[in-house]
Amino acid sequence: MGKNIILETIAREMQAGVLVLNKEGAALYANPYFLNSFPIDNGVEDKPVGEIIKNSSLLKKVDHFLQSRGGKSEDIEISEASRFFKVHVVPLKEKEDFSLLLFLQDITEEKRVETIKKDFVANVSHELRTPLASIKGYSETLLDGGMDDKETLKEFLRVIDRHATRMARLIDDLLTLSRLESHQMTIVSAPVDLKELILYITTGFEKQARDKGITLSSQIPDGLPKILGDRDRLEQVMVNLLDNAIKYTPSGGNVSINAGKNNGNVKVNVKDTGFGIPADDIPRIFERFYRVDKARSRDLGGTGLGLAIVKHIIQGHNGKLHVESTPGKGSTFSFSLKACD
C-alpha cells in the first residue's frame, strides 16, 4: 500500500480540518472535516485561501509565511461564522517547492464552557458582594456604638439576618444546581400522587399569598394519574414556581394551579397575573442568574437560580417545560411528566 494512500486515509478520518496551500496561497487539498466546517461551492482546489477562509488574522499569518517562504510553525486562534478554531500553521519547504499546511481544531465548545465559567464566577461574586457589604456595614455601625439604642439594634439585626438568609439561600441553590448539573443528585423514581403533592405545597404558601393580598387557588381533578418521579425533587419544582408566581404578582392579583391528563402525560400549570416576561427574555429565563428585572428580583429576595433548578429537575424526569407570558398581564409556567401505566 502506497504512502500517499495511507496519508490521505489518515487525513480523511481526522477529526480536525486539514488544508494544504501551494506557494501562491491556492488550495491543493482539504480533508472532509475541513470541507464540512468551511463549505465551498465546487470544492476548494485551486481557490485562493482568501476565498475559503475570511478571518483577517489568519490570512495575515498565511501571507507572512508565503512571503518569507519558511519559518517555524505557529498557532493562532480564530473565529469564523460564530465558531472558534485553533489553527496550527506548518510551513513545508523542499528545495524550490514550498507549501503550507493548516490544521484546524474546533474549540467552540471549549470557548462556550470557558465563558460560562467566567460568567458564573462573576455572577456569584456579584451576588455575594451586596449582602456581605450590608452585613459588614451594619455590623461596624453596631460595634462603633450603635448598640446603645435598642430600636436601632433590633432594626440593624433584622437587616443582618435578612441578608444572611439571602446568602444561605444562594449557597443552598448553588449546591443543588451543581449536583443536578454534574448528575450527582440521583433522581429516585417512584409513583407520585401529584394532586396530593400540589395541595400540600399550596397549603404552605397560603400565608405568604394572604399577607401580600394575593388570591391563591388550585383546581386538580379527582382521578389524576400518578407519575413516576422523585417526590422531593418535584416538591422543589412546585416550591420554586409558586414562590416566583407570588413574588412577581402585585397585591390584588391571582395565582392558580391546575393539572390534567394530556396525551399520556400529566400537565401542571402555574398561572399568575403578575408583571409578565417580555418575549425576548423568555428563551433565557432558565439560565443561571438571568433576571428580567435585576433590581426587582434582588429586592424580592430571588437568587436567580430557581428556574435553572426547575429546568434541570424536569429534564432529569424526561419531562417538558413550557412558558407563556404577556408583559403586564402575567405568566403561565407548565411542565408535563409521563403518567404511570
Structural write-up:
The chain has 341 residues and is an alpha+beta fold. The protein folds into 3 domains: 3-106, 2-Layer Sandwich (Beta-Lactamase); 109-185, Helix Hairpins (Orthogonal Bundle), CATH 1.10.287.130; 187-341, Heat Shock Protein 90 (2-Layer Sandwich). It is 45% helix and 24% strand. It has helices at 3-13, 32-37, 49-52, 56-68, 108-143, 150-181, 194-204, 206-211, 231-247, 294-299, 306-316; strands at 17-22, 27-30, 74-80, 83-94, 97-106, 190-192, 215-219, 227-229, 254-262, 265-272, 320-326, 330-338. It has a 5-stranded antiparallel sheet, sandwiched between helices. A 5-stranded mixed sheet has the order 7-9-10-12-11. Helix 5 runs antiparallel to helix 6 and helix 9 runs antiparallel to helix 11.
Over all CA atoms, what is the radius of gyration?
29 Å
Look up the CATH topology of the largest domain: Heat Shock Protein 90
Q: Roughly what percent helix?
A: 40-55%
**Secondary-structure content class:** alpha+beta
Backbone shape? elongated
Element-level helix/strand string: HEEHHHEEEHHEHHEEHEEHHEE
Strand content: 15-25%
Architecture per CATH nomenclature, i.e. the level-2 architecture of the largest domain = 2-Layer Sandwich
How many angstroms does the end-to-end distance come to?
59 Å
Annotation, overall tally of beta strands: 12
| Average pLDDT over all residues | 84
- In CATH terms, the superfamily of the largest domain is Histidine kinase-like ATPase, C-terminal domain
Q: Could you give a short description of this structure?
A:
This protein has 341 residues and is of the alpha+beta class. Helices cover 45% and strands 24% of the residues.
